[in-house]
Amino acid sequence: MTKNHLLVIGHRGARGLAPENTLASLRAALECKVDGIEIDVRVTADGVAVLNHDPALHDTKMLITKHRFTELQAHKQDLTTLEAAIKLVNRTVPLMIEVKPDTAVLPVAQVIQHFLANGWQADDFLLGSFSQATLLQLHRALPHIATVVIGRFSGVRSTWRARQLATKNISLSRPSLWWYFIRAMRRGKYRLYVYTLNDPHKAKQWQRYGLYGVITDFPNRFGR
Asked: Which of 27, 61, 92, 210 is the most exposed place for a label (fewest CB within 10 A)?
């Protein structure tokens, strides 16, 4: 068994402490002294990269891809742009940017390229997706930024995807993990994250076998 420093990543900011994927949620995560923050990104009809987990706004049926940013913001005043999120975090911790499947990659890449041209570094970001096609597009557009393969259950498929992208970063759903698998991933030199884990005791158990990072709604529970 191995001992490593377990990274604590705020999930959608810190969605257990403030409305998810908002500036308030990002601030809450930073107050908890997280090692990183995970956010979800989609692109509006007029090409604005915004933070939202679902295809539509939570309390409406307005699809992100079918409406302009100002229209969406009129219904959700705290709708946050990727640009505003990056400015707020301001290189304090890395941003793990999950780009949702079927999201236009170019507007996301352009925002990140703007910040890279203005003093931000490649290691200020991680780029993740459930979609391999999306990750490959992101990697082509931003080859110096590390990618994170996000999967649900299959370790075999996730490692195949990771090899295709030449990355060692994999994020898998909590129900798919158990101690032997975590240890095997560690031996394979993979950096394994788990989502969504809100139990510090379980995280500590899995840390003993080489879990690299925990993505949690409640970073305040991890005593940073």
From this structure: 61
d(CA 115, CA 110): 9
How would you classify residue 67: left for phi > 0, otherwise alpha for psi between -120 and 50, otherwise beta?
beta
Residue bearing tokens 């939202």: 52
CA dist., res. 106 & res. 28, Å (int) = 29
Tokens 């560690």: give the residue: 186
- For residue 64, CA distances in Å to 60, 98, 224 come to 11, 16, 35
Closest CA to 21 of 122, 118, 136, 100: 100
Tell me: the pLDDT tens digits for 155-178?
899 999 999 999 999 999 999 899
Pairing, β 7-11 against β 36-43: parallel
Helix (H, G, I), strand (E, B) or coil at 89: helix
* Residues 64, 56 contacting (CB under 8 angstroms): yes
pTM of the model: 0.96
The domain spans of the chain are 7-222
**Per CATH, which fold does 7-222 belong to?**
TIM Barrel (3.20.20)
Alpha-carbon gap, residue 170 to 177, rounded angstroms: 12
